[in-house]
Amino acid sequence: MVQNFDVVIIGAGGAGLRAAVEIPKEYSCAVLSKVFPPRSHTGTAQGGVCAALSNMEDDSWENHAFDTVKGSDYLGDQDSIEVMCKDAIRAIMELEHMGMPFSRNAEGKIAQRNFGGHTKPADPNDPYGKRIPVKRSCYSADRTGHVMLHTLYETCIKNQVNFFSEYFVTDLLIENGVCKGVVAMDIATSELHTFHAKAVIFATGGYGRVFRITSNAHVGTGDGFALCYKNGLPLEDMEFFQFHPTGLWKLGILVSEAARGEGGILKNKDGERFMVRYAPTVMDLAPRDMVSRAIISEIREGRGIRGSDGTDFVYLDVSHLGKEVIDDKLPEITGFARTYLGVEPTKEPIPIQPTAHYAMGGIPTNVNGEVLLNEKGDVVKGLYAAGECACVSVHGANRLGTNSLLDLVVFGRRTGKAVTDFIKTADYAPISGNEDERSKKIINDIFNKNGNEKVVDIRTELQDTMMNDCGVFRNEADLKRMVEKVKELKERAKNISIQDKGKVFNTDLIEAIELDNLLETAEATVNSAYARQESRGAHTREDFPKRDDENWMKHTFAFKDENGGAPILKYKPVVVTRFKPMERKY
Ligand SMILES: Cc1cc2nc3c(=O)[nH]c(=O)nc-3n(C[C@H](O)[C@H](O)[C@H](O)COP(=O)(O)OP(=O)(O)OC[C@H]3O[C@@H](n4cnc5c(N)ncnc54)[C@H](O)[C@@H]3O)c2cc1C
Predict the structure, then answer these.
(1) Hey, which residues are catalytic here?
(2) Residues 246, 255: contact at Cβ < 8 Å?
(3) Contact 235, 558 (CB under 8 A)
(4) d(CA 119, CA 66)
(5) Residue with CA closest to ligand 1 atom 9
(6) What are phi and psi of 64, to 5 degrees?
(7) Tag placement on the chain: N or C end, fewer CB within 10 Å?
(8) Chain-wide mean pLDDT for the chain?
């Protein structure tokens, strides 16, 4: 079946919905989501969304921009970062006006709290001297993403956006640099639908599920990344994957940085506040890459705590904050500790370990969400991307906490505006009506395969090996092994078979397609990481421990090799405007 819409948005998280809100009612707009829209991963965001509102203390967008550039380890494009940090203040006001219920301070203004890497100069006359933490993160207890997502969803309903819930996108239609739409499967019936569109926006979220221990929802399988990559488009900076320092031990469920923002402390087996040794000024509020490395270093040097199953963790202690602060400001995450680990956070420390959390890299775009065709900056006509699946790039080699929800609303809106301008004059690119053939073949092949491999086995092996060989610390030997492993798993994936051969809510079928997407994103990630011979932000090479601005201050663009070989890597210079690269110390 073919359906026509001026705009088709894939993904109903914060980015997709914020873009949808921007499309004027006179244009038809469809939002497709493989889960019921408010179950998108944005709904799990806990800690906050930042903007230099100065509600608690003096702050400025320039402070925010400097922190973001430094946090990115100087890989973020500074022109894009300026756009985001300047627009942040308006973006928060706009959410408030839409009805988002923020927590309030004593004056009734939006309350703000500390978050890792968000600072201001200790002496205003010395902007690049010593910096101290600043309260910049706006929040709604520890359910910020949940209330943001619901506010945006309700606004979309008011604007009569058409939702296609539980539709799984299986193909992207691009010909000669022009996007014509997508093909999607209605999960309830396995029926294929061609969505013919003037403009398509990818807002498909992250791919944390490529790692064993992750904070990401099960739907975070990198479908958008893989669909672009398989269609010849590049993926940018995939080697930069953020590990959040505080996931619940063994489970990876996130304990928001808000816990440390409110005063929580990390401790090793001797009860020592070890961050004093790694980031003497900001300590537990150092950026995530540094805190994750510190935790793994403590464990490697024998100062972790050995769990009953032989794996190690360290402690996050919030007990000294008192029951009132914990119940008022951190109710969800302390509830997780009680439910999943049987720990009472008001009395005892929480066992934690780093958890795969966020993709800094993704589908390359400019500040208007237009998808780049190559490292030269040419764009694909009619194709846009926003949110975690996109790489603008504002997060560079390491994202600061609360900058992602901000990225969603700032660039979601800008993308919606750019698309509106585009569809005013654009026509539908012609289609034949047989656009679903490729998807039909993929699905039939999966149904007809009788191999002896199981999707779950290949996925688990991928997740385990990615965790070990492409995790917080990396080196040549591990990465080379992982490059080979991905090749091997791709071969083995040709021999899968699925048990459920039915057409109704066939999750076996969906997981088989998702496995292919995970393998494609892993291929781009591992090969980009293997090539980058330096340590920067989240990409830490034990064999190349220093940042190397001379050779590596550039973005990776990974293109899929049509002949099945290793991806072809090209590079694009970083945009530097006002902040000169410096050593990154906290
Ligand atoms: C536990 C957790 C806590 C976080 N806390 C914070 C925080 O406090 N502050 C902050 O700034 N950031 C936080 N982040 C990061 C931030 O929440 C995410 O980066 C962001 O929400 C991603 O939003 P998105 O709109 O890009 O995608 P998502 O919200 O992930 O939505 C993706 C959408 O794409 C759809 N989709 C994907 N593939 C397909 C397909 N094949 N077909 C159809 N639909 C598809 C899904 O159904 C979904 O609707 C957190 C992340 C996690 C995991």
Answers:
(1) 288
(2) yes
(3) yes
(4) 9
(5) 402
(6) -60, -45
(7) N
(8) 96
pLDDT tops 90 at residue 127: no
Cα 217 to ligand 1 centre (Å): 8
- Measured CA to CA, the distance from residue 206 to residue 192 in angstroms comes to 24
Our answer on whether the CB atom of 246 is closer than 6 Å to any ligand 1 atom is no
Which residue lies with its CA nearest to atom 50 of ligand 1?
45
Ligand 1 centroid from CA 63, angstroms: 27
The answer to whether the CB of 34 is under 6 A from ligand 1 is yes
580: exposed, middle or buried (C-beta count within 10 Å: 0-12, 13-18, 19+)? exposed
Domains, the chain? 247-354 (3.90.700.10), 437-548 (1.20.58.100)
Per the document, the length of the chain is 586
Which DSSP string corresponds to 315-348?
Answer: EEE-GGG-HHHHHHH-HHHHHHHHHHH---TTTS
* Tens digits of residue pLDDT in 296-347: 999 999 999 999 999 999 999 999 999 999 998 889 889 999 999 999 999 9
Strands 191-202 and 379-385: parallel
Supply the residue whose CA is at minimum distance from atom 52 of ligand 1. Answer: 45
Q: Which structure tokens are listed for 152?
A: 């945006």
Among candidate residues 481, 489, 488, 485, the one with its CA nearest the CA of residue 459: 489
206 Cα–ligand 1 center, Å: 6
Torsions phi, psi for 517 (to 5 deg): -65, -40
Instruction: Render pLDDT for 524-560 as a digit per residue (tens, 0 to 9).
Output: 999 999 999 999 999 999 999 999 999 999 999 999 9
Q: Does 223 contact ligand 1 (Cβ within 6 A)?
A: yes
387 Cβ closer than 6 Å to some ligand 1 atom: yes
Cβ 254 under 6 angstroms from ligand 1: yes
